[in-house]
Amino acid sequence: MAKERFIETYSQGISNVRKIIVDTETGVNYLLLSSNMTSGCGVAVLVDKDGKPIITSVDGKDSI
Fold first, then answer.
1. Residue 51 · residue 31 · CB < 8 Å
2. Tens digits of per-residue pLDDT, 22-50?
3. What is the DSSP letter of 51?
4. Per-residue burial over 31-41, b = 16 or more CB atoms within 10 Å of its CB, e = otherwise
5. What is the pTM of this model?
6. Where are the domains of the chain?
7. What is the Cα–Cα distance from 49 to 35, expressed in whole angstroms?
8. Taking a C-beta distance cutoff of 8 angstroms, is the pair 17, 11 a contact?
């Protein structure tokens, strides 16, 4: 089975959903928000205080 491209690292809520998704190829973290998963949602890149994308170490590699 192929490796998943995106993995969920955090989840909060049932109808007001907040999730952090990590791209397993780049390590970039995304925030997914939805007030109701059937009526649409929004996705944004998470950034640090300097405006740079938050990168998670993937497969034991150091962050980029």
1. no
2. 999 999 999 999 887 567 789 999 999 99
3. S
4. bbebeeeeeee
5. 0.80
6. 6-45
7. 26
8. yes
